[in-house]
Amino acid sequence: MIIKTKADWEKERPLLLEGLREFASVMKHRPFQNEQGVRGVSAFALYWFIKQVKPTIVFEVGVWKGFSTWVIQQAAPDAEVFCFDPIFLIEHLLEPRKVGPTYRSARASYSHQDFSCANIQELAAKSPRPLVFFDDHQNKLARLLQARQFGIRDIIFDDNDPSVGSHRTLEEDRMDPQSMAVLEREVDNYEIFPALWDVDALLNDTLRIKVDGMGFPIERELQEIYNEREWHSYVTYIRLPIT
Ligand SMILES: C[S@@+](CC[C@H](N)C(=O)[O-])C[C@H]1O[C@@H](n2cnc3c(N)ncnc32)[C@H](O)[C@@H]1O
Predict the structure, then answer these.
(1) Residue-wise pLDDT tens digits, 176-185
(2) Residue 233's closest CA among 133, 164, 131, 140?
(3) Per the confidence metrics, is the pTM higher than 0.85?
(4) Is residue 9 lining ligand 1, measured as CB closer than 6 Å?
């Protein structure tokens, strides 16, 4: 498994800055201000990885209000998008006033089925570059193995913190020799998107994020993304080998 290092990211600084400026202008047209899920640099990380991979079909697992669906569609406007979240089973019962704004797209398909039970293999096999984005707070190694089983080699995980609490992350698995052996066997590339600016934030009673950033400039057009920098959620891209 090749793990992308700080030095590797440093080499991409000019391209990252160019991509960030582009994302800042895309964000001017956002459907609403996201208050849960990907925000700030994390939203850019999702955009960045998708732009790099250029998927033809995207499975989004964990959708909530749909902000990440919108980001995915900005990054890959021609990709088919299939969204999975148990919330869709009861969404019609929720009071729109309490939920607030949502983004649902006529160009995406929605299902309340679990990813592990849906016809992913069949859909993925019909498209040259399938990608899955997991933001569902389920154990990540199990999700990785399901993706592999369905023939998907490009995976993005949100919330891959070393101590997220709600589920087991790959950063936790990397500290466990048995799980690490599985990762070494199953994964070609492992890339955690870096903090672009320093982060020192207490996100709740137990979760403190303190990381050194890459010292990006705080330009006027980047200010809104900079303001949300504390939502650094270790967005991680995984590339699996050909089987
Ligand atoms: C953090 S929210 C997603 C936020 C969204 N991706 C964004 O960035 O705007 C997590 C979502 O995962 C959903 N979820 C929980 N279990 C799930 C499962 N097994 N499959 C798919 N989604 C699940 C929850 O219902 C919730 O809507």
Answers:
(1) 999 999 999 9
(2) 164
(3) yes
(4) no
